[in-house]
Every structure is written in C-alpha cells, then in structure tokens.
C-alpha cells in the first residue's frame, strides 16, 4: 500500500522511510517508530493501517536498512545499543515530522518498545509535534525529563513487561503528574510487545485492538482527522 521514500533531516542529510498516505489530501500525519527489530513488515503494516484510519503515516528507517529476525534478541539489543537516540530523534524523526507537516498538517508521533522511548524523547526535542502515543518504552531521564515534555501524551504499557516494568511506568506517571503534564496512561494485563501480531508468543489481540482504538481517537482529537469515521 505504501512506498519507500527519501526525506531530508534538518542537518541536510538524507534519510529513508516507509510512507503510507491516507486516501484524502490534507490528512494529518503520524510518524511511526520501529521496535528494536528495525523497520519490519509489521511496522509497515501499522503505517498502512494509520493511512486507512485517515492519517499520512511515515516510519523512518532508524537502522538504515537493517532488520533483525524476531528470534535474534542479541542482535536486536546490539542494534538498539549502537543507535544514537538523540541523533535519531532530533534529526531523522524530526525530518520525518517536517516532511509530513510541510503542507501545514498537524503531526503526531508514536512508537513501540525502542520507538516508545523515542516518542518521549521526541515529545521533548521535536518542536513540530502536536501529540504523542507511547507503546511500552521509556527513555532514561537524561534523554528526556517528564518535566520537559511539550505535547499531550497517551501511553500504553504491559503489566507483564520485564523491560519497561510496572515500577518504571509508575515512576514516569508520577513525574508527569508532578510536572502538570498531559498524560493519558493505560495498563494492560499483557506481555511486552503485545501489539505485534507477528509475534504470537506475546501478541494479545484484545489488548492490541483496545490500545489501537484509543490511539486513533487520541490522534483524531489532537491532530484532526480526515477519515470518514
């Protein structure tokens, strides 16, 4: 449904990503950030789904073509740990945001796992964003302090998550509230990465559909929507 495109980062360098456009022109935009596996078919599929819901969706390729197979967590960890999160967010993600906002459209940011952490960093460091939806990822405070978040956030976390633990989530929620920031937070009795339908061991369809509906409604409220719904 979508296509691979090249877009400019603020520093003038080229970046690539997968773009799926809504059927109507002048649609709001959503930048979609990959899990630690890379820009997988599953992330492309989510862009297609956002497009069907009335948003232009662009997933920047933060690993520059590298996609790690689902069984190889060591390789995924290596890729994630070698990623410059600040460069990826302030340059590649910001470039994708600027690309989608070039016709004056409002743009939101969402991401999963690694991408959830990038979404919170973007909420601090990417001024063109209007809203963000976080899926089971929180960055270290030195990358993005809750007090510095500049946009409304919605967040989805799993109670059986041993990476983005319930304790970590509670700390983030408390810090956001203490700073008077706009946060809608949902917890699901599910595993980390429960939205990823290609990983049957962790996928929870009921939780994933509930979270998806909430995310679409949140983005429609904050970005506007050109969907028929």
UniProtKB/TrEMBL annotation:
Domain of life: Bacteria
Gene Ontology molecular-function annotations: hydrolase activity
Keyword terms: Hydrolase
Gene3D superfamilies in UniProt: alpha/beta hydrolase (3.40.50.1820)
Domain Dienelactone hydrolase: 17-222
Entries under InterPro entries matching the protein: AB_hydrolase_fold, Dienelactn_hydro, Dienelactone_hydrolase-like
Coiled-coil zones: none
Protein name as catalogued: Dienelactone hydrolase family protein
Species of provenance: Bradyrhizobium niftali
